[in-house]
Each structure stands twice: as C-alpha cells, then as structure tokens.
Specification:
There is one protein chain. This protein is an alpha+beta fold. It has three domains: about 110 residues, Hypothetical Protein Pfu-838710-001; about 140 residues, CHAD domain (Alpha solenoid); about 140 residues, Four Helix Bundle (Hemerythrin (Met), subunit A), CATH 1.20.120. Helices cover about 55% and strands about 15% of the residues. A nine-stranded antiparallel sheet has the order 5-4-3-2-6-7-8-1-9. The longest helix is centred in the C-terminal third of the chain and has 40 residues. It starts with a strand and ends with a helix. This is CHAD domain-containing protein. It comes from Campylobacter portucalensis. Pfam families: CHAD.
C-alpha cells in the first residue's frame, strides 16, 4: 500500500541534494486511448523507451505493461482521448523507505506529488516521515482519485483557481451553471450592442448579427436546460424563438436579393422583392423597437443575473457536463444522418443542419477544454458541411419566396430561376450525401472519446 501527498512546490529536491540523497530522474510523457469502468489503456514514453499499459478491473484485476516501438507509440497517439501529461519522475530511498516524486509540466505545471511505497496496511497507518522531510508542507491525497494520472489527463488540476489566459476558457472542475451563464451573458451583451446599432443605422448586416446571436443563445440555453429551473428556461426559449422568427423572413429576402443581383435582367424582380423586403424590415424594426423585444430580453436578463443560483436545479462539473451535452447532441445527429437519403425531403436536411449547428456552437466555445487534434479536425469538417446544409436551406427558402411572388410580368423570370435553383439544390443534396459517411465516422470517433469523461 502506498501513501500520496500533494506538495506546495518542488523544494524537496534541494533538501535531498543538501542531504546527499541519491536521486534517479526520468522524463515521462503519458496519454490514454481508453478509459472505462472495465479497462484502462495508456501509453508512456520514459526517456527513450516506450510502453503500453493495460489495466482491467474484474474479479481478478490485472495490470500489464509491455515495451513497444517508437512507431507503435506514435500510431497510438492518433487515438488518444485526452491531453498528454508530462512530468519529471524522481525516485530515491531514505533509510530503506522508497519514495517517488512527480513534478508535472505543461498544463499541469505546479502539481508536485510525493508517493511513499509501504509494505503493509499496518505500516501505512503508522507511517511517519523521516526527519529530513518532516517539515515539508504537504497535504495527503491518498484517497483522492482526482490526482490519479488518468483523471489529471481528463480534467486537469482540481486545485486550479484561475486560467492562464484572458480568453473565455473554463476550468474543468468549475461549476457548469456559472460558466454557461458567463457564455450566454457574453452573447446577450452582443445582442444589446447590435440592437442599439441597428436602431440607429437600420443596417441589414447588423440585423443578421442580432439574429445569429439570438439563435446561438437559444441553442446553448436549450442544450444546457438541465442546469436551470424548467419554468424560467421554457419562457425564455419561447420568447427567443419568437425573436428568431421575426428576423428570419427579412434574412431570407436579403440573401435571395443578393443572389439575384448576380443574375442578368433581374432589376425588375429585385425592385419588386425589395419592396416586400422593406415591409419585412418595417415589421422587424417595429418588433425590435417595441416593448415585446424588451420583454424577451428582460426575462433573459433575470436568469443571467442570478448570482445566488435561485434558478439553478442541478450541479455539474463543467467538463463532465460539456462532454455529456456534446455527446448527447452527437448521438441525435448520428440518428438523423443515418436516416438521410436521396429520398428524404428537404425539411429532413434542414433538421440535420440545425443539429450540426448546435454541435458547432459547443465546439466553438469548448473545443480548447479537450486539447485534442481529433476535435479540431472534426470541428473544421463540421463547419464545412454546415455551409452546404445552409446553402441548401437558403435555396429552399428562395423557392418558397418564388412560389409566393411569381405572378404578373416577373412570373416567367422567377419560374426560370426556380428551375435553376432546384437543379442546384439537387446537386447540393448529392454533395451532402456523398460526404455523409466520412462525416459520420469523424463524429462517431468524438462520441467514443467523450464517453471517458462521464
């Protein structure tokens, strides 16, 4: 049985040197490719040697470590499920007592763990530090699993109080309720800023920014609804949905008109559609200026200013909650993608787009928490494929606009455009379906990784 202690710093090395204690040092880099209740698989580089370790938890627990090649180690690195840990490992003896000291580096810098090897439980209970080490500042962590290598890999330093950067990053062990409110507060401030700017300039691009931020805010609130009182979150979600609908129509017209500006002989049609768009613009302005919009934002603000956690329902550790939420959304996406085929209606494609958008919002805010290249690659592919779905959604909206306004002198022109847009939609659907399987493999890999975090 061993006992473990968290040290304030690595000054113990100076003490050992002054007392002429022989110390052996090695450099270790370690990562995990599997962490579950049954099996843990890790890879380790110790100086210039490489090892694979597999631990199984069963009626007869087993721990097997074998030496592997550098190439095997490199190949395994592509499958890692967490950040690597780097540490300097020291071993030494004092009066036949064997000690191990780990001084962590990189993102775990500041963590110093001293472990004492003890032969029996009785000896462990009666253990006293040698006089040389008696006055070292320390805290026992023998029973604290947070300081096991696998949990340090997954969640980082439980004692961390601040981030090492000023950007919007979150500590793995911090409270999910506070952190999600911090994100949505940031988005809310953007909405207020653009709202004031829009009322002054009446600029359609500013309106689009309001719309995007409201959508993002609603998605994040809905995905994190387990954190909040369901009564207030339901009210806010409904109100934000109304605000999104109010801005959607104007956006569809703006995008369609921009498309038509590149089409020859479209000036008469553009003039007619701009007349309708201006009416939509008037409706949006009226909504943003009146008390209805203020009521939407007021309810939202009450939640965001809840410093006493009156509306908090469940307590979650940040990284676990993010992993759980992201995986939940990925599973939903996998089901929708699996059903998607060349026989699917456009609305089925639009539902997939909405689900991809949700996942991208989570990636955008939390990808740095995981520090994995596999996440970055998946996020890039997810953003690219979302653009295809967005183009399909826009063109489908254009066809609906044409169906409503293809009358009189502009009928023939709009009918021709509808035919051309329909061909483009058919091509887009084909491109999406062609990339579907590769995308599913990417997100499936992320889903498997996320299971280790909760």
């Amino acid at each position: 049985m061993n006992r473990k202690f968290l040290l304030k710093n690595s000054d113990i090395l100076d003490i050992l040197f002054k007392n002429q204690i022989v110390v052996y040092k090695s450099k270790i880099t370690k990562f995990y490719t599997k962490i579950s209740k049954q099996t843990t698989i890790s890879y380790k580089k110790r100086d210039n040697a490489y090892y694979l370790n597999e631990t199984t938890n069963s009626l007869e627990p087993k721990n097997v470590e074998i030496m592997i090649s550098k190439n095997q180690y490199k190949t395994a690195k592509k499958e890692k499920i967490s950040r690597s840990i780097k540490k300097e490992h020291f071993s030494f003896k004092i009066e036949n007592e064997e000690y191990f000291l780990d001084v962590f580096k990189s993102n775990l810098k500041g963590i110093v763990i001293l472990e004492v090897k003890i032969n029996s439980k009785i000896d462990a209970n009666n253990f006293q530090f040698n006089e040389i080490l008696k006055n070292i500042e320390k805290k026992e962590i023998t029973s604290n699993s947070a300081y096991e290598d696998k949990y340090l890999c997954l969640y980082g330093d439980i004692e961390a109080k601040t981030n090492k950067s000023n950007s919007m990053k979150f500590l793995d062990y911090s409270d999910a309720y506070d952190n999600f409110k911090a994100i949505t507060t940031q988005i809310y401030d953007e909405i207020l800023k653009y709202k004031d700017e829009y009322l002054t300039t009446k600029n359609s691009e500013i309106l689009h920014k309001i719309r995007v931020n409201i959508k993002k805010s609603r998605s994040l609130l809905k995905m994190s609804s387990d954190l909040y009182d369901p009564k207030i979150s339901k009210i806010i979600l409904e109100n934000l949905k109304i605000a999104i609908k109010q801005t959607n129509h104007r956006h569809d017209f703006d995008v369609f008109i921009n498309y038509l500006k590149k089409v020859p002989n479209s000036s008469q049609v553009i003039e007619s559609l701009e007349f309708v768009a201006n009416q939509k613009f008037f409706d949006v302005c009226k909504f943003i200026e009146n008390e209805e919009m203020d009521d939407v934002l007021l309810d939202y603000e009450i939640l965001l200013k809840d410093s006493n956690k009156i509306y908090a329902t469940n307590k979650f550790m940040m990284k676990k909650f993010v992993a759980l939420t992201l995986r939940k959304e990925i599973v939903k996406l996998e089901k929708k993608l699996f059903k998607l085929s060349d026989e699917s209606q456009n609305k089925s494609f639009h539902k997939v787009r909405f689900q991809i958008q949700n996942i991208n919002y989570l990636f955008e805010n939390f990808i740095e928490m995981f520090g994995l290249k596999s996440f970055e690659k998946c996020y890039k592919m997810s953003k690219d494929i979302e653009k295809l779905f967005q183009n399909l959604k826009d063109q489908d909206a254009w066809c609906h606009i044409i169906s409503m306004y293809d009358k009189g002198e502009i009928h023939q022109f709009l009918t021709t455009q509808k035919d051309e847009i329909s061909i483009k939609m058919f091509e887009l659907r084909g491109e999406i379906l062609e990339k579907k399987d590769k995308f599913m493999k990417k997100i499936s890999k992320i889903s498997k990784i996320l299971k280790a975090y909760y």
